[in-house]
Automatic annotation (TrEMBL):
One Pfam family it belongs to: FAD_binding_3
Keyword Cytoplasm in record: no
Keyword Transit peptide: no
Limits of the FAD-binding domain: 4-320
Alphabetical UniProt keywords: Oxidoreductase
Coiled-coil region list: none
SUPFAM superfamilies noted in UniProt: FAD/NAD(P)-binding domain
Protein name: FAD-dependent oxidoreductase
Length: 396
């Protein structure tokens, strides 16, 4: 039976990045991914503060090689009040990270996994995790193709939380328990109004809905609508639901006028939750396997990457210091507390959005140079920065 320092389950951004960090630190890492890549995945708009992680692992060189479109800001328009606001990432606090990228996930995830492999991660794909047996000295991992042993295991399996769900509960976030999204890829969506071609546009629509348009390199744009389940739709009604929301909102209608759909519609529902615990003695969760928030602020991949950064630090320390627990108080980070802090701040920002009148609220701080910089830094994903005044004063 093969033995590893760490087994990572799931080859999405969270799993891949945890595995890469650990391989770069010289550990023996196995990553198990059940799907053959490329495969479709939603979560296409990245945040500027993720570039910190990308630079640390070195993946930034792939990301910035010209294949992906640069995202310099986020444009919010309100279809009800006809108002708009632009978050220019270059004005975010000290603007440590002035841009991000928009990525077609099938390509991005494949690039990330190949990069992990190049850095020394052993990848088994397609191979499906089945179960794990824990002991004081490690974990016995069973897949559909074999049995392996490791000192630690990372659950990066996304919403399935396949490693840790047998021993813990998922708690749904009551604040937006009923949200669902309908989305597809289109060609010919108007980009002429954007300050910079790769900017994300978030539309505040009538009837408690909001939309995203995420432009990719070339002519394809991802377009989605998020709404509450008061307006629940079945798959066969998705096109009608989508077209009606476009027709109801003049600005959205205008930018979609010449758009042609190039993928089927997809639906995801009830996506906000957190697991009871994020880390244990021999296990840790990253990304969606840990928690997931409503996607207005494109926080998903960023949370996955930040969790990968902090969990891999604890695993590295544990491996070098007598294999202590990942949740041992002697370890580098109180991982759970650290992750709950950043996720909690995103939640506070979401509350400001969902309570309504979002653009006006931002206008009120717009005149105050430092507050606006702090808000842009927050929208850029700087939720783990204590230098941010909105966070220091508990506003976020
Ligand atoms: C409507 C919507 C819009 C979104 N928009 C954005 C956005 O604009 N920006 C953003 O950053 N995020 C967005 N997200 C969130 C984003 O999709 C996720 O947060 C992100 O993909 C999480 O990455 P991950 O690595 O944790 O998990 P995933 O990307 O889900 O990867 C998990 C991997 O684990 C594998 N796996 C699962 N079970 C097993 C098993 N038994 N054995 C082996 N492998 C397994 C899966 O095949 C998968 O490849 C959005 C989400 C939704 C629902």
């Amino acid at each position: 039976m093969s033995s590893y320092d760490v087994i990572v389950v799931g080859g999405g951004p969270g799993g891949c990045t945890t595995a890469t960090y650990l391989a770069l630190k010289g550990h023996k890492v196995l990553l198990i991914e059940k799907e053959v890549f490329p495969r479709f995945k939603i979560g296409e708009s990245l945040l500027p503060f993720s570039m910190e992680v990308m630079k640390e692992t070195g993946f930034y060189d792939v990301l910035s090689s010209g294949k992906y479109i640069q995202k310099n800001g986020a444009y919010f328009f309100d279809s009800v009040t006809n108002d708009n606001i632009y978050f220019d990432f270059a004005n975010g606090g000290k603007a440590e990270f002035p841009h991000a990228y928009e990525v077609i996930r099938s390509e991005f995830d494949k690039d990330l996994l190949e990069y992990a492999q190049k850095k020394g991660v052993e990848v088994r794909q397609p191979e499906e995790f089945v179960n794990a047996e824990f002991s004081d000295t490690g974990v016995m991992v069973k897949t559909n193709k074999g049995i392996y042993h490791s000192k630690y295991i990372v659950d990066g399996s996304g919403r399935a939380s396949i490693v840790t769900s047998p021993f813990q509960k998922k708690v749904k976030n009551p604040f937006y328990i009923n949200n669902f999204a309908v989305f597809a890829h289109f060609e010919g969506v108007d980009r002429s109004y954007l300050k910079s071609e790769g900017d994300i546009c978030v539309g505040i629509l009538k009837n408690k809905a909001w939309s995203w348009t995420i432009p990719f390199k070339g002519n394809t744009t991802s377009v989605g609508i998020v709404s509450t389940q008061e307006f629940v739709v079945e798959m066969q009604q998705s096109e009608e639901f989508f077209d009606q929301r476009v027709a109801d909102n003049p600005f959205f209608h205008q930018i979609m006028k010449n758009a042609k759909r190039t993928s089927p519609f997809m639906i995801q529902s009830n996506f906000s939750y957190a697991n009871e615990k994020f880390v244990g003695n021999r296990w840790g969760t990253v990304g969606d396997a840990m928690s997931f928030l409503d996607p207005v602020f494109s926080s998903g991949v960023h949370v996955s990457l930040m969790s990968a950064k902090y969990l891999s630090t604890n695993i590295d320390f544990a491996l070098r210091n007598g294999e202590i627990g990942l949740d041992d108080p002697a370890n580098v980070h109180n991982y759970e507390e650290l992750m709950k802090m950043g996720v909690g701040r995103f939640h506070n920002l979401l509350q400001i959005f969902y309570e309504g009148d979002f653009i006006n609220k931002i206008r009120n701080i717009e005149g105050k140079e430092h507050s606006m910089g702090a808000m842009i830094a927050a929208v850029s994903g700087g939720m783990w920065r204590d230098s941010n005044s909105l966070m220091r004063f508990g506003i976020l």
